[in-house]
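User:
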Amino acid sequence: MKPSTRSTLLTLSCYGAMLLTFLAAPAFCLLASAQETTVRIGYNKVWPAFPLHVAIAKKTIEQHGAQPQWVSFQTPNDILVAMAAGELDMGVVTGPNLAVAHQQGIKVKGIALLAGPGDPPNTLFARKDLGLTSVRDLKGKTIAVNNYGGNFDLYLRRELVDNGLDPKNDVKIIEIPFFQTIPALATKTIDAGFLDTIFTAVALKNNSNDLAPVFSYRDVGPFKNGWNGLILAVNDSFIARNHAVAVKLLRGYLDAVQFVQDNPREAVKLYVETSGNKNALLLDKGNDVPADGQIQLPQMQADIDLMAQFGYIKTGFDAKEVVDSSLLDEAAKMK
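Assistant: Predicted structure:
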């Protein structure tokens, strides 16, 4: 019996649908695979996370199968907010950010150290015309930090207390972006201000006639032997979904850390290329990060304790609650 025109068309339609489904499947799988390996990371290109910049320039993360999507932000606080909203999978934050996240019930963990001590170390500078000779001479002065509750602010308050000054009543602490600190000192808007490693090098080279160091991070009790500057944090939910991808990303990061240690001047140049911050060329090497990339727990605990001491969080807690070292341990075993 000869098939009708209608049944023939239906048969061809079914075959066509099957063919389209078959052809579309590989494309769908590729798209799904790309989505599964993509990691949305909040950062700022001028922050001195030298191994991270090497990873970006040399694509060491992509070489291990993870696909970072770099999203620019102005502050670590903004990054934490975006992580809490599910807009980022990972982000560059600080120890104090992790303390705040813990208090607010935001499920994130610090998983790698991105910037530790620098040479020269982060330093508080004062105007030379004030004739300051000690921390106690800061009494009655206006001092700039980059943000309240950040490392500059906490370490300043700790050093003031250690020298018999009350941070609330004996000085005036204000917020100024660190790249505006030197101009603010020059115009006498402030009396003293904290600078990071790169801008400390600038001040020592170009402003020694007008500015004098008062103290550095290495003078502050808990941080004489090191500190956690910038930290890579991850959402707990991302680890639950994409544990293997996170480990691959960290394997690429460890490759970048090794490159920085083997090629310190080349790492500085790569930072300058990716950030555009030529001031870093004053450095012989970038901020230290240990070969294993791990966050320093004693210093993390000190950050948390200072946050509690100065009222930025209600109570202290064990630093291990906001640090996960196991992912880097896994990454270190990969080739």
